[in-house]
């Protein structure tokens, strides 16, 4: 297994994994409005514009040429996507992807924390990674999330 930064030509495949995993594990907790908002957020045109501007960064986990998971940050230290293919759940892929972001953040002297607005499905995953809630669950534009933070050492 290896963690790589995908090139622009891989982003469409990356977003297909995100959407597939979202539909199975996240969408059941969301309203129709929330599902539509997320679909718009991960649309290729929306993401590629942010990617080109350097507003969003991706890392992928590859196992034998198979895309198994993806993490994305808005800026350097706000996780906006963390998705792992169903066949690879509970194998440390989310942790490996998160540790990659953690190392990038630690290499910057002025970053002291990593934030995420966790979906209901992923709250326990983030707790296991060392995040803690900073507020109660909220809903904005149909998107349910719990604001969370991870403090860097």
TrEMBL record:
Gene3D superfamilies in UniProt: 3.40.630.30
Domain N-acetyltransferase: start-end pairs: 9-153
Molecular function in Gene Ontology: acyltransferase activity
Keywords: Acyltransferase, Transferase
InterPro entries: Acyl_CoA_acyltransferase, GNAT_dom, N-acetyltrans/Recomb-assoc
Enzyme class per UniProt: transferase
CDD domains registered for this protein in UniProt: NAT_SF (cd04301)
Assigned EC number: 2.3.1.-
Xref: Pfam families: Acetyltransf_10
Name of the molecule in the record: GNAT family N-acetyltransferase
Classification of source organism: Bacteria, Bacillati, Bacillota, Clostridia, Eubacteriales
């Amino acid at each position: 297994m290896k963690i790589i930064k995908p090139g622009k030509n891989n982003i469409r495949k990356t977003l297909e994994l995100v959407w597939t995993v979202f539909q199975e594990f996240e969408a059941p907790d969301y309203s129709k409005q929330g599902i539509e908002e997320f679909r718009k957020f991960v649309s290729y045109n929306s993401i590629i514009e942010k990617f080109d501007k350097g507003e969003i960064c991706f890392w992928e986990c590859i196992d034998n040429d198979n895309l198994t998971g993806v993490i994305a940050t808005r800026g350097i230290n706000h996780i906006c996507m963390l998705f792992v293919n169903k066949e690879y759940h509970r194998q440390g892929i989310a942790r490996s992807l998160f540790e990659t972001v953690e190392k990038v953040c630690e290499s910057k002297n002025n970053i002291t924390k990593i934030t995420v607005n966790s979906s209901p499905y992923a709250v326990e995953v983030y707790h296991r990674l060392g995040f803690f809630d900073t507020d109660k669950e909220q809903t904005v534009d149909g998107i349910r999330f719990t604001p969370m933070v991870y403090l860097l050492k």
